[in-house]
């Protein structure tokens, strides 16, 4: 797998989510992702960006354009140094929320992605990686 390009975007305030969504959509369009795939990755990015700010206290997203086996992919890596998630299995269940949301963020992002990986250490933060392939 080859990384073609990387972009980092700070996620600190709610306006950053709007900016990030625009950049993700632009990259997905430029890569030739279908409208359905564009919508899926932008929606997942929005949920994860919101989690990064609300629960992680802010962080960043790294956008990587990938090439592997003749395919193009867009990988988004969300990182924060917040309190972390103590029970990942519970956090991935639909309906679970540690706040006032609907509890669809992590599980929804997983379903909207071709690849999903999460690492979280209580007291040290969370890293969520999603990829959508063309």
Give the helix/strand layout.
Blueprint: E1 2-11, H1 14-30, H2 35-54, E2 59-68, E3 71-80, H3 88-91, H4 105-112, E4 115-121, E5 125-133
Antiparallel strand pairs: 1-2, 2-3, 3-5, 4-5
Helix pairs in contact: 1-2, 2-4
What do these coordinates show?
Helix 1 (14-30) packs antiparallel against helix 2 (35-54) and helix 2 (35-54) packs antiparallel against helix 4 (105-112). The longest helix is centred in the N-terminal third of the chain and has 20 residues, at 35-54. The model has no long low-confidence stretch (mean pLDDT 90). The chain has a single domain, classed as 2-Layer Sandwich (Heat Shock Protein 90), CATH 3.30.565.10. The chain is globular, with a radius of gyration of 14 Å. With 134 residues, the protein is α+β, with helices and mostly antiparallel strands. It has helices spanning 14-30, 35-54, 88-91, 105-112, and strands at 2-11, 59-68, 71-80, 115-121, 125-133. Helix content is 37%, strand content 34%. Strands 1-2-3-5-4 form a 5-stranded antiparallel beta sheet, with helices on one face. The protein has 4 helices and 5 strands.
Give a summary of the structure in a few sentences.
By secondary structure, the protein is of the alpha+beta class.
Short descriptors:
134 residues, single chain, Heat Shock Protein 90, alpha+beta, 5-stranded antiparallel beta sheet
């Amino acid at each position: 797998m080859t990384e073609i390009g990387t972009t980092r975007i700070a996620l600190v305030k709610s306006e950053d989510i709007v900016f990030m969504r625009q950049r993700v959509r632009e990259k997905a369009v430029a890569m030739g992702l279908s409208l359905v795939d564009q919508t899926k990755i932008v929606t997942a990015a929005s949920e994860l960006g919101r989690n990064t700010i609300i629960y992680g206290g802010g962080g960043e997203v790294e956008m990587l354009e990938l090439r592997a086996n003749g395919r193009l992919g867009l990988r988004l890596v969300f990182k924060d140094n917040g309190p972390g998630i103590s029970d990942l299995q519970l956090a991935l269940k639909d309906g679970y929320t540690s706040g006032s949301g609907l509890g669809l963020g992590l599980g929804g992002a997983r379903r909207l992605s071709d690849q999903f990986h999460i690492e979280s250490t209580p007291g040290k933060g969370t890293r969520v990686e999603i990829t959508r392939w063309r």
